[in-house]
Amino acid sequence: MPKLRGEAFWRETLRSAHYVVAPMVDQSELAWRLLSRRHGAQLCYTPMLHAQVFLRDANYRRENLYGEACAEDRPLIVQFCANDPEVFVQAALLAQDYCDAIDLNLGCPQMIAKRGHYGAFLQEEWDLLQRMILLANEKLSVPITCKIRVFPEIAKTVKYAQMLEKAGCQLLTVHGRTKEQKGPLAGVASWEHIQAVRKAVSIPVFANGNIQCLRDVEECIRKTGVHGVMSAEGNLHNPALFEGRNPLVWEMAEEYLEIVQKHPCPLSYVRAHLFKLWHHTLQVYQQLRDELAKVKTLEGIVDVNRELKLRCQEEIANQKEGEKPKEGLPFFHWICQPYIRPGPKERCKENGTSESDKCVRGKRALEEEEDGNSELLSKNKQKKKLRNPNKSFDPSLKPKYAKCDQCGNPKGNKCVFNMCRGCCKKRAFKETADCPGHGLLFKTKYEKSLSWQSSQRVIQNPEISRRGDVAAGEAAVLQEDGDS
Fold first, then answer.
1. Measured between alpha carbons, how far is 96 from 88 in angstroms, rounded to an integer?
2. pLDDT digits over 200-254, tens only?
3. Average pLDDT over residues 324-334
4. Nearest partner of 129 among 81, 179, 94, judged by Cα
5. Measured between alpha carbons, how far is 384 from 382 in angstroms, rounded to an integer?
6. Who contacts 295 (Cβ-Cβ below 8 Å, separation ≥6)?
7. Number of helices (H) and strands (E), helices first, in the chain?
8. Which of 44, 84, 314, 423 would you call most buried, defined as having the most Cβ atoms within 10 angstroms of its Cβ?
9. Which residues pair with 20 in a beta bridge?
């Protein structure tokens, strides 16, 4: 049976899905997808998977896709990040039997994507992208889709989308922000770009950006004409977003934790979800925020969730008639609702600093800062600084290491070959040599093995040993006769 394409693929395989849960690193795992589907989501994506790791690591495949089969979790699209056509297609071939389509991530704007050369940092390499999609479209038995970010220019964005469609993309998700718009610099997504793409291509288009409630979904579809709307942040803070409800936070948290007990996932995922769900409440109960950050077991997370619920119920019981939500929230903090990410100016005010202090710098820009000024360090580096006040992140102060003669990695200080351990091991094995500096004793072990084999032959053949003793005795007699 030939694979469906374009509109037919969206209508029949994806069941005309309008409400879509975005691919989110470590956050759109099976348990969260099932919770979202129970509350209105019609299509889900897996977390972004690294094609190279998926291809070589069986455990990674099992943990992220090959686990317990779940009929509820369909339709499902598996998303990969990749920058090599062969690697991408080989990974997709291993995944295609477990999903309804394969998505190529061309939208991740984070620093890790820049370092790994994937996501939105491939958007200028049209020739490479064409080759990746053409090969995938030819080899895979399921359709290939793409998720992109826009260029500042609408015309270039349209040409980009048309190129992907021509290469074989069967569905396009457009995040209406550029790759520079992230963190506190995210700003508003451009639905104008999305509308232009929708009019310029014949394949189905999903919109992503500015979705905080069901009313936003409906308005986005009306203004842009897209087939469906994808949500990430909005879904994380309110998994019932597509139902048009704002439930009590503990209802969603308890339901999610019950699903996790049936479909386990790493504790870090669970903790991150509760931080999102309880975001506004944890601003009120800072002590419980710290407890949630430190807890080491699922049972411990359940206990923290129960305590948050009791605190909120007690607050509700003591609530005065006519009392309104604080901190400018549309609802009381124990109700699922959007979190509006503060912009640079608001973040400056929160931190008590001014724009002259370069508070407009984004989170990832801070991570790239390498000097010792703790105000300009990432949170992780600040924690390291607290543990070791003398630690410096200035690259000029880092010790310089002699390089391996073979590969350029730091060499072992006591290596007899002036190599790193990996290269030393290969050479020592090839030459049956020892390197005490790296603890490699191929020569010594080989000699011991020969000695042991020799002793075993003597034990197994005592006649040889006896003849050897007789011969030695005769030689001694002859020697004595000669001396006399």
1. 12
2. 999 999 999 999 999 999 999 999 999 999 999 999 999 999 999 999 999 999 9
3. 89
4. 81
5. 5
6. 271, 301, 303, 304
7. 22, 11
8. 44
9. 43, 230
Reported as a single tens digit per residue, the pLDDT across 433-477 is 999 999 999 999 999 988 888 888 877 776 655 555 555 555 554
Q: Are 399 and 386 in contact (CB under 8 A)?
A: no
Looking at 3.20.20.70, 3.40.50.1820, 3.40.50.10090, 3.40.630.30, the CATH number of the domain 6-245 comes to 3.20.20.70
Please give the Cα distance from 138 to 147 (Å, whole number): 19
Query: Which has the closest alpha carbon to 227: 13, 463, 446?
Result: 13
User: Among 32-41, 122-131, 163-172, 420-429, whose mean pLDDT is lowest?
Assistant: 420-429
Cα–Cα distance, 20 to 235 (Å, whole number): 9
Classify each residue of 354-377 as buried b or exposed e, where b means 16 or more C-beta atoms within 10 Å of its C-beta. Answer: eeeeebebbebebbeeeeeeeebb
> Tens of pLDDT along 134-145?
999 999 999 999
Among residues 44, 81, 108, 146, the one annotated as catalytic is 108
In sequence order, the β-bridge partners of residue 368 are none
Catalytic residue at 81?
no
Long-range contacts at 282-286 (CB < 8 A, ≥ 24 apart): 282/308, 283/327, 283/333, 284/333, 285/311
Dump strand ranges (E) for 39-151. 43-45, 49-50, 76-81, 101-106, 144-149
